[in-house]
Amino acid sequence: LFPQASMMFAQCTQKCVSSMLLIALLCCILPPPAQASKSSEDIRCKCICPPYRNISGHIYNKNVSQKDCNCLHVVEPMPVPGNDVEAYCLLCECKYEERSTTTIKVIIIIYLSVVGALLLYMAFLVLVDPLIRKPDAYTQPLHNEEENEDTRSLAAAHTPSGARANTVLERVEGAQQRWKRQVQEQRKTVFDRHKMLS
């Protein structure tokens, strides 16, 4: 029962992720809308005007088309009188900026779908995988050794607080020694198998 449920869950997850990625790719492939139909959030003209006489510097933003991206169309209200407008506008640096909100939305959808797939996979590993996985004959002695180490550390935990700090270090050192022994045993078995094969 459990293996069938896990297979169905994995297939459902794969279908959901593949459909989300397909939708996101279609949105990327479709041609962007024409310049005339662009939303006002996608285009803007930014004019940076430095200080001029007694007027402090200022940055002006306005949603205008590229041909209207100049000081006369963006700087409103004009801070200088009529005869100084040309000199003031020569100092201003105007840049046309354009972005695609559709691309931003697609990237966010892809990101959220990947995160969602990872969360589903994590839920699968936490809930279903321990029920399916059978205890391995090779790892059982290792678990027994870890349980023995835990019981020894629990027995040592009943000692005074000064000794308790030492038990934490001893546990870390014990885990390190166990890991080194496991690595050495694995190396030995690999080399033995290699000698047998050659």
From TrEMBL:
UniProt-listed Pfam families: Tmemb_9
Flavoprotein listed as a keyword: no
UniProt-listed InterPro entries: TMEM9/TMEM9B
Superkingdom, natural source: Eukaryota
Gene Ontology cellular-component terms listed: lysosomal membrane
Transmembrane spans: 106-128
Compartment(s): Membrane
Region annotated Disordered, chain positions: 143-162, 179-198
Protein keywords: Membrane, Signal, Transmembrane, Transmembrane helix
Signal peptide segment: 1-36
Keyword Iron set for record: no
Compositional bias per record (Basic and acidic residues), positions renumbered to this chain: 182-198
Main location: membrane
Entry similarity comment: Belongs to the TMEM9 family.
Protein name: TMEM9 protein
Annotated source species: Aramus guarauna (Limpkin)
Lineage, highest ranks first: Eukaryota, Metazoa, Chordata, Craniata, Vertebrata
